[in-house]
């Protein structure tokens, strides 16, 4: 049993594909252990993506992540971190496999519809960025 943080980014919420995305997680054996819809400020988006602060896309990425509401979730299941990333597809939708969320919904490498933790360490930081222990069931 493993937990990972998933985000449906502003482009996914705007396209109204929240249910489609959650259905894909559930069909693949992941369970929603916590969930909420929130609108990040620029500063909150910068804090979440602090690992990317030296990257050239940091400013544009954090503008995008704060442009509208997002849905944040804790997903739980066997190999949840790797499984979530497999369901999401490659960062750049041009390289994403057919049937993945990014292949079906993402516009480009930045507006790529979903986020998923990439390691147990980042899952731990990212889950605690949004949820308290009392909110994860
Ligand atoms: P995420 O962390 O959102 O799950 P990822 O792990 O596939 O995605 P990262 O390398 O961690 O990709 O990049 C974080 C996010 O930054 C990407 O999801 C995307 O929104 C944006 N991003 C990544 N590379 C670029 C790029 N070359 N140009 C613009 N935005 C980018
Ligand atoms: Mg990442």
Automatic annotation (TrEMBL):
Cofactor(s) the record lists: Mg(2+)
Q: Does the keyword Magnesium apply?
A: yes
Kindly give the SUPFAM superfamilies that the UniProt entry links to this protein.
Nucleoside diphosphate kinase, NDK (SSF54919)
Residues annotated for ATP binding in this entry: 9, 57, 85, 91, 102, 112
Q: Which GO terms describe its cellular component?
A: cytoplasm
Q: Which reaction does it catalyse?
A: a 2'-deoxyribonucleoside 5'-diphosphate + ATP = a 2'-deoxyribonucleoside 5'-triphosphate + ADP; a ribonucleoside 5'-diphosphate + ATP = a ribonucleoside 5'-triphosphate + ADP
Q: SMART domains per the record?
A: NDK
What interactions and quaternary structure are annotated? Homotetramer.
Family from the record: Belongs to the NDK family.
Query: Cross-referenced PANTHER family, in alphabetical order?
Result: NUCLEOSIDE DIPHOSPHATE KINASE (PTHR11349)
Q: What does this protein do?
A: Major role in the synthesis of nucleoside triphosphates other than ATP. The ATP gamma phosphate is transferred to the NDP beta phosphate via a ping-pong mechanism, using a phosphorylated active-site intermediate.
Sorted alphabetically, which HAMAP family does this protein's record hold? NDP_kinase (MF_00451)
Name this polypeptide is given? Nucleoside diphosphate kinase
> What gene is this protein a product of?
ndk
């Amino acid at each position: 049993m493993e937990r990972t943080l998933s985000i449906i980014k502003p482009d996914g919420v705007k396209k109204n594909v929240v249910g489609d995305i959650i259905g894909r997680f559930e069909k693949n054996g992941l369970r929603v252990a916590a969930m909420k819809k929130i609108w990040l400020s620029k500063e909150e988006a910068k804090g979440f993506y602090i690992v990317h602060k030296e990257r050239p896309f940091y400013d544009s990425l954090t503008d995008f992540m704060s442009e509208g509401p997002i849905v944040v979730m804790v997903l739980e299941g066997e190999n949840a971190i790797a499984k979530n990333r497999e369901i999401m597809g490659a960062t750049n939708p041009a390289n994403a496999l057919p049937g993945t969320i990014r292949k079906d919904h993402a516009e480009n490498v930045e507006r790529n519809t979903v986020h998923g933790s990439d390691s147990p360490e980042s899952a731990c930081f990212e889950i605690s960025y949004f949820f308290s222990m009392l909110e994860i069931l």
